[in-house]
Amino acid sequence: MPAKKNRDKGDKSAAIADPTPAASEPEGPPPPEPRPPVRVLYCGVCTFPVEYCEFGSSITRCKEWLHEHDLEAYSKYYSDEALQAKIGTLSLEAQSKLEQETAKKEAKAEAKADAALKKKLASQVTIKRIERNKRKHVTSIHGLEAFNIDLKKAAKQFASKFATGASVTKNPQGLEEIVVQGDVSDEVLEMIEGEVGILKGIPADNVEIIEEKKKKGGD
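C-alpha cells predicted for Translation machinery-associated protein 22:
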C-alpha cells in the first residue's frame, strides 16, 4: 500500500511540473478593409441614375440638368470623348437612326407633358358649402385629384386640421370628392392658397367656393 501511495504522488508531481504550453492554432488572414459606399447620382429630371438617362425620354433636359449640377459627371458621360467612345463603333447610318429615334422619343414625351399641364391648368377645384339643416353644414371638395393630390391623405389632413370627420365619397355624378363635416369652406380655401401639407400646386384662380342651400320641402 505505501508503494502505491508514493507512485500516485509521483504522477501528480510530474503533471504539475510539465511547463510545455498548448499549441495555438495558426492565425487566419486579416479581415478585408471595408469598401466605401457607392455614390449614386440621380437625375433631377427623369429620376434615373445619371448613367441611365439615355434610356429615358428627356435626354436633352437631363443633360442640361447634369451640366448645371455636376460638371464632372457630365464630362464623364457626355463629353465629346465619351460620346465618341460610345458610338464610335456604330456606322453613320446607325448613328443617324439613333439620333432620330431619340429626338422622336423626346418630342413625344414633351407633347405628353404639355397636354398634362394644359389639362391641369384647365381643371377646377370646387369647394361647396352644403346646408343639411338650419344649423348643420358639410363641406365638399372636388377636383383635387387633377392636381395629383391623394384624396385619402387630403381627407386625413382635413380631419386632423378641423378635428372633425372627413372622408372620400362619390357625388351624384359618380366622381370622387372629399366631404368634411361642418362649414369649413373658407378655411379649406386658405389651406389651398397657403399650400398647406399636401395641398400644393393648385393655382388660386382654379379654386371656387359655391353654396348649396337645402331645398324647401326637402328631407
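The first strand starts at residue 125 and ends at 133.
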